[in-house]
Amino acid sequence: MKANTPLTRSLLLSTLALALGACSGGGSGNKSTLVYQESADIPTLDPGVTYDTASGQVVENLYETLLDYKGSSLRDLQPKLATSWNVTDGGKTVTFKLREGVKFHTGNPFTCEDAQYSLRRNLITNSSNSGNWFISEALLGTSSNAKDDPSITWAKISAAVRCDDQGQLVLSMPKVDPAILPKLAYIGQAIVDSKHAKEIGDWDGTEATWKDWVGKDLTGGVLDKDPSGTGAYKLVKRDANSLAASAFADYWGDKPTLQNVLIQKVPEDATRQQALLKGDADVVESASRAVIQQQLQGKPGIAIIDDLPNTTSSAIFMNEKISNAALLGSGKLDGKGVPANFFSDVNVRKGFAYAFDVDSYIKDVQLGKGKPRTMLLPDSFPGYDASIPTYALDTAKATAAFKAAFGGQLWQNGFVLNADYRAGSVAAQTAMEILKKNVEALNPKFKVNLTAKQWSTMIQDSQNGKEAMILNAWAPDYADADNFLYTFYSSKGYYQTAANFKNAQIDGWLDQARSIADQGQRDKLYAQVGKAVYDNAYYINLPAAAGIFAYRDSLQGISKDTYNPMRAFILGVYWKDISKK
Predict the structure, then answer these.
(1) Domain 63-231 maps to which CATH number in 3.40.605.10, 3.40.190.150, 3.30.450.20, 3.90.76.10?
(2) Residues facing 84 on adjacent strands
(3) Which first-to-last residue range defines the signal peptide (predicted)?
(4) Could you read off the pLDDT of 465-508 as tens digits, one per residue?
(5) What phi-psi label fits residue 416: left (phi over 0), alpha (psi between -120 and 50 degrees) or beta?
(6) Is the CB of residue 257 less than 8 Å from the CB of residue 510?
(7) CATH 3.40.50.11900 corresponds to the domain 313-544
(8) What is the pTM of this model?
């Protein structure tokens, strides 16, 4: 019987309910259940459109990729659903031998057909809110889908991803991509159950229908509602406020110790911290360092892991083409709103950049354990240039910039700007409040209104250019500078619709850097990019903090040696590798 039938699902729900009933919330008193509380909702459970950490932390435990990162390494890869691979044709062809004896949650066997279907499906859909652009670049030579690039044909897709006569997966690229293997380790390239997908109404896998799925947004689709992967856990239940998963009895690898995982949406930070202190939750969404050190550290039952590497980049976005009329007020520079192109004036951007107090953010949010970033790139990555200047609070320079903006109109008339931040994120709220306070202090005619917004809604709106100013971040899909710099700075990058700027010179440098293998040459190009971005103040860079997390000390398998920032779960490990004493 398939695991997604009503009867089996009812049995699983009953089992989970019994397990969770052992203690309030199913927290640390229950050794078979992991309870995690977070503020964000979970936008999707379909790997083909998973491109946020809230979704990724679940998807990476329900599904699996061909390859995986080894231990805590960002560069060493190991087999997962593939047991080995061979690179030929001067680096343009990769052949994978696939693992045998693997089952999906439905009971269907894993075969090469599933891998072929999954990657072809990603190349075909390649919607704007997915991470499929970078696998499409590698396999098809373009980041676009067939709607935007008519050169993409079924013949190209089927030749790029195919199964050979030995049941091996063969990937063929138009040119060498040195990052192809790390790209395949990203959870968005996880393998889905093709037979199950077809049965429930997803793409049928044929040439006859592929055009119907080009650019299709898979969020909320059939695999989002009814996932089937090969991962160590299977979905039991999901609603607007919680998700429950249970250990997959037929998992091919080492069996998980934890039988159940419960994720609860709890927007209030204080409520989450109390649940952790009481033992109603085993781990909660990472609070600010101040909360952890002042309210959690040293308390009975609480363990702290600190000084973890920071491989994310965070920034305040300034959208140069705001497409949401509701945020514009009057839509004019008359003191009652802002025009849609408000941030297209470099002086406006510089005014905001000079108004952000980096030192206060480091002190108040990061408790002194923060470091300004010159670029939106982790400083541990090749290509980072520490010599590029940074913006810091300077009221004189902020005032001068604002006075120069729009030929003096902005300073004379003032503005009302509506900005959003992720609901439940103390760090994001604090950053936006620091900026609001300092900007409004410059001129009584300046007004910044802040609103807390649901994560999934904010993502969707930013992708459609509807957010005026937000704080957002990027975690690496694969360990290469291009994954950050192209994403943030290219007019064809993932965040282009959220920032809406185009700089032909920067585009040229980025395109050139991804076409050469010599790291020294790439570093020089990236330094030029970084300096040009600084000169144009396209973003307000947030300082990078050393990672710190609090969790119940009953959890085992968590340490700096096991932490891998490429994994979406905040403790940097898979659920299956955690146990409880």
Answers:
(1) 3.90.76.10
(2) 97
(3) 1-19
(4) 999 999 999 988 887 889 999 999 999 898 999 999 999 999 99
(5) beta
(6) no
(7) no
(8) 0.76
